[in-house]
Write a structure and sequence with these properties.
Blueprint: H1 2-11, E1 29-33, E2 36-41, E3 46-51, E4 58-62, H2 65-68, E5 81-82, H3 83-86, H4 90-94, H5 99-113, H6 120-129, H7 134-140, E6 156-157, E7 160-161, E8 166-172, H8 189-204, E9 208-210, E10 217-221, E11 261-262, H9 263-280, E12 282-284, E13 287-293, H10 306-317, H11 329-344, E14 352-360, E15 366-375, H12 376-389, E16 392-395, E17 410-413, H13 417-425, H14 431-449, H15 456-466, H16 476-502, H17 517-543, H18 552-562, H19 564-584, H20 589-599, H21 615-646
Parallel strand pairs: 2-8
Antiparallel strand pairs: 1-4, 2-3, 5-8, 6-7, 9-10, 10-11, 12-13, 13-14, 14-15, 16-17
Helix pairs in contact: 1-9, 5-6, 10-11, 11-12, 13-14, 13-15, 13-16, 15-16, 16-21, 17-18, 17-19, 17-20, 17-21, 18-19
Length: 647
């Protein structure tokens, strides 16, 4: 609570180093989706009304402690509310008695409108509403529809029943003064400040108590804000039910014997947290994770991949496209340091960073499942360490790019935590899978923020899944793309795991003199696939075929991990006709490559019947990348040669 209050004070009304999508609200305010907007003049006369478009429905409204968390009862909002609260003629057109709600609403609004803290727009709304013509005017304006029985129809306005519509106001004052130019009451800072001054004057006369978060004596609150994760969220961080039954288990007579939180403290903390979640929260089902610097300075996100974290900083100093291939790990490390340096410029030695994860234990209870506070410099060091040690050639579309029709790209960096979990456990389908993913993301978070080792069981799940046939779907092209993405992410995980456990540093480029048994078998599998793909490609062109079947290397790669020697013999038999054809055409590229790799095996390694470890994936991927880069280089050389001849 103290950290969030500090963030609120540092960020409210200030120019920040990043552009937030939503504004930090004044104390005593919340948001609500509105369906109807009533337009008045400065004297409180009805001008017209409009249906609020769905994309403009979110409305800032003043709230009291009682109205902010209301789920039932007669606690009205101070200004904007549903028809049943603001319309005196509601019962005439619905046959439902709303007298208690309307009287409570009007009495509260009257107290504000006639207070020293009021303003002309609030007074105009009060003048209009006490006439009791809201629904009559809306019917005449064609906003609401009435049936033959004299009651409002069951028609809906933006998916909300007519009688349950939420109303906001616009007051058009033709005075020429600057403060009257903003007619939208829900966007007028003068109205915000008017209510805050009025409501705090009411709170000031209340009995003061000790605020546990700040250590100050102030008016305290028993009711705290909801809507933290999204506008429909009813879960609260702090709550206490009525003191009956077993609410306090016989230990306390009232909730303040447990803890008391100041009204101002509660408002600032909850509004700051809601604002942080809206602008930089990471959602995974009902779980949300947010990281922020207490003074509102920009920091990299712990749950995003390198493409999302570093690209904005890289683009400041270089005109490089996202699909550029970084050839060496050293070059990538240099670029990453440059990106992190951009973030360091915004921080000082006293900067503190907080990482928090929230999850609803029940519909009404929100729990903090992860909370870590650290120095900004330590946080950036740990972020840089993660992206350095978990980096690989990632082959997939970036969420930041978002073009589903693109061919994808190659990018050296670390994958996002969500991508790691999806690679290990599959796509998000069903509630059980969503719960599994969020629990695994929670486990991975300390790997980024605290340099904890990568959980070995998550890696094993990815390793056991990656070569399994049919796991990526039946559509060949789509399955191929998903496999390439999963393979590159698995390699990043392997590189991170080997560094954490054995302090090994594996290159992202092909290591042609590496003699590890699993690595070499991975290379053999890649050569076998490349050879057959090349032969099938030429055969396809000659026979004008539309479909290309799987290669032997693809069909047998799952069992290849468990029984490499026996399976390699089967794959070699399948390759015989292609090797003979290559030999007949005078092309010995693949034969020479196979011989070269086999010669690197240590005595007894090739014949061993032991299964292969995770390094088979590194060898396989690196060899495949080497072939692809060679093709790209040959293509470029031929293009340059052709251009030179034409000149």
């Amino acid at each position: 609570m103290s950290d969030l209050c500090q963030t609120y004070d540092a960020c409210f009304g200030k120019k920040l180093t990043f552009q937030p999508r939503t504004e930090l609200l004044h104390m005593g305010h919340s948001t609500q989706n509105a369906q109807i907007e009533i337009v008045l003049n400065g004297d409180g006369l009805f001008r017209n009304a409009e249906i609020v478009p769905k994309d403009d429905a979110v409305t800032v409204i003043p709230v009291t402690e009682d109205s902010a968390g209301k789920t039932s009862g007669d606690s009205p909002h101070p200004l904007c509310d549903k028809l049943k609260y603001i319309a005196a003629d509601y019962a005439v057109y619905t046959k439902e008695d709303n007298a208690k709600k309307y009287n409570a609403y009007l009495e509260q609004l009257k107290d504000w409108a006639e207070s020293p803290y009021s303003c002309q727009k609030v007074q105009a709304i009060y003048t209009y509403l006490k006439k009791g013509r809201v629904i009559t005017d809306l019917l005449e304006a064609g906003i609401l529809q009435i049936g033959e029985n004299g009651k409002l129809k069951d028609d809906k306005i933006e998916e909300i029943s007519q009688k349950d519509s939420f109303v906001r106001f616009r007051v058009e004052i033709d005075s020429g003064k600057a403060e009257d130019r903003e007619a939208r009451v829900y966007r007028d800072s003068m109205v915000y400040e008017s209510f805050l001054s009025y409501y705090t004057s009411k709170k000031a006369v209340q009995k003061k108590d000790l605020c546990y978060a700040t250590g100050k004596w102030m008016p305290c609150s028993d009711k705290h804000l909801a809507k933290i994760r999204h506008i429909g969220d009813k879960a609260k961080l702090i709550s206490s039910n009525e003191p009956t039954g077993f609410t306090y288990h016989g230990r306390f007579s009232n909730s303040r014997e447990v803890a008391s939180i100041g009204y101002e403290t509660s408002q600032k903390a909850h509004l700051a947290l809601r604002w942080l979640v809206e602008n930089q929260g990471f959602h995974c089902g009902e779980q949300v994770i947010v990281a922020w610097e207490l003074q509102g300075r920009k920091i990299p996100s712990p749950f995003q991949g390198t493409a999302e974290v570093a690209m904005e900083e890289w683009e400041k100093d270089a005109e490089e496209e996202l699909h550029e291939i970084v050839q060496t790990g050293w070059e990538f490390s240099k670029k990453l340091k440059k990106a992190v340096k951009g973030y360091r410029k915004e921080l000082d030695i006293h900067s503190d960073v907080v990482v928090m994860a929230l999850e609803a234990a029940t519909t009404g209870r929100l729990s903090i499942v992860f909370y870590k506070k650290m120095k900004g410099s330590d946080y950036l060091d740990n972020i840089e360490h993660w992206h350095n040690t978990c980096s690989w050639y990632l082959e997939y579309k970036s969420e930041k790019q978002g073009d589903e029709n693109s061919k994808g790209y190659f990018f050296v960096g670390a994958p996002s935590l969500r991508d790691i979990c999806v690679t290990a456990y599959g796509d998000e389908h069903g509630e059980s899978m969503k719960k599994l993913l969020k629990s695994q993301i929670e486990r991975l978070l300390p790997c980024v923020t605290d340099r904890k080792p990568l959980p070995e069981d998550i890696l094993r799940m990815a390793v056991n899944r990656i070569f399994r046939l049919g796991v990526f779907g039946k559509k060949k092209e789509e399955a191929k793309n998903k496999f390439q993405k999963a393979l590159s992410i698995t390699c990043a995980m392997i590189r991170k795991f080997r560094f954490d456990k054995y302090k090994e540093e594996w290159n992202m480029a092909l290591e042609e003199r590496r003699t590890d048994r699993s690595y070499l078998f991975g290379r053999l599998l890649a050569v076998a696939q490349e050879l057959e793909e090349n032969a099938l490609y030429h055969q396809k062109n000659q026979e004008n075929q539309k479909n290309q079947r799987d290669t032997a290397a693809e069909r047998f790669r799952e069992i290849f991990r468990r029984k490499p020697v026996k399976t390699w013999g089967v794959i070699e038999d399948c390759l015989s006709p292609y090797l003979s054809y290559q030999k007949a055409t005078g092309n010995s590229l693949y034969t020479d490559k196979l011989d070269e790799i086999i010669d690197l095996f240590q005595p007894g390694d090739f014949e061993s019947k032991a299964p292969l470890d995770e390094l088979v994936f590194l060898g396989y991927h690196c060899q495949r990348r080497a072939f692809k880069e060679a093709r790209m280089q040959n293509k470029q050389e031929n293009k340059e040669k052709k251009g030179s001849i034409e000149e």
